[in-house]
Structure of GntR family transcriptional regulator:
Amino acid sequence: MRIPAHSVCTAIRDDIVAGVYERGSRLTEELLARRYGVSRVPVREALRTLEAEGFVVTRRHAGACVAEPTEEEAADLLEMRMLLEPLGAARAAQRRTEAHLKVLRGLVRLGQERARRGHSEDLRSLGGWFHETLAQASGSPALTSMLTQLRHKIAWMYAVEASAHPAESWAEHGGIVDAVARGDSERARSITALHTERAATTHRLRFPGRGDRVERVRTSQHPVNVTGLRH
């Protein structure tokens, strides 16, 4: 069975974000194919996609390498998210479906419950699902794709501190959903803008300077799990 390039791309991207590959390190097709249990063809396609996304660069005499973004580039990502997420929420207020609302409301209930019980370990993943669903509710594949890329790259470049007031954060999520359900684009936009601005203050660069890197967790080699990969 030929494993599709997008599955290989997801696996490599996830490992870059997790710090398995250090910034600036070489990514040879042969070693990647061996690591993920695939041929070099999907690896080559995946590297082209990751280069377009900004995770990989091609260097003369070195080939494909993990990118080394600057602090300015990292700061730009947070600013871009602060501009695009409110736009996505405004679009969601105009285009969301009842299925989107059902999922968003369910996530808010879970998030508020976990926040009350102090289950902070669940809140980050629930927050990610919330914002992913909100982006999908915008009805704009291009905007959804851009926000997904931003989330991946921000997770790569930043460590996120746990919110000191998780209940307030999830109350804001609830306010966004209420505005989206009413079709109030401006209200959805303004609450989301406030929410993303506050969230940005909890982000700390993983790579604050050359030679001053945060220790990253390394995982053992594994083949691509075709059924379990996110798309």
